Amino acid sequence: MFGFRYFKSRPTDYVVLFRGGRPRRQALGLSGLVFTPTTIAAAVPIDARHEIFAVEALTADYQTLTIQGLLTYRVGDAVLASARQDFSINLFTGKHTGEPMKQIVERLRAIVQTACREALVRSTLDAALNKADELSQTIMATIAADKKLSADGIAVDRVLVLSVKPAPEIRKALEATLREQLLRQADAAVFERRRAALNDEHDIKLRDEKNKREITEKELANQQALEIERKKLADARAVTSRAEAEAEAVALRERLKPWAEIAPQTISAMAIKDWANRNEGLSSLALGGDALDRLADALAVKKG
Hints:
Elements: E1 4-8, E2 13-19, E3 22-28, E4 31-35, E5 39-45, E6 49-58, E7 64-75, H1 78-84, E8 88-89, H2 100-120, H3 125-128, H4 132-145, H5 147-151, E9 154-166, H6 168-260, H7 264-276, H8 289-303
Antiparallel strand pairs: 1-4, 2-3, 2-5, 5-8, 6-7, 7-9
């Protein structure tokens, strides 16, 4: 009505209202009545935005890699950004008349692509495939070193390199090579496991044989010790038996010593007398030739 219109912006838009080429009102999430015939509005989004990027780069060994990542950026200084780039909007629709955020994204992508190419041109394929974290740091360092971005009020919060992929045919070749390496490692592991099992079995057999040998040696030593003890016992028994026999012989000699001093005739007479004094009836008497000879000699001596 009469050229006035109620204008309302988003909470994340920093709005600058120009009249006569000069900023008249500016605030975050600005709203209110504006005179559309003489007012120009610029809305600068200050919310953080995420952009997926994909960059192709060539390695030192002439292999093409595709780097995919996530870029988080925002407008750090809205007033400075509105002065350096066209963020004007249509007061009736609230939409930008151009594509300022798209231009910022394209600019950031160009910086990312340059950083990736400069980083990978000095790396081989094998080394580049493991450089995701290093690439993230390199890109952030390159963006931080770009003074024009900060001069235009643009800030980058984080860069994440999500993947580094080779060309499909190179990827298949690498997968085949890796598969062969894994198979060889698996075969080597199986062989090592079998060898370890054989070594363990051999060690067990050696321990068993050693234990058996030790047991046999102990048994032989015990038998030898037992035989020695038995020999000692037999020797002791022989000594004892010999001592007992000697003692019995000495005793017998002592008992027979008085009889050696008596004449044989006397001994015979004493025997006959002792026999005659027994209470046993005499039924027969047998004398040998030696006894008769001694008796005859005794009688002859007595008569003479």
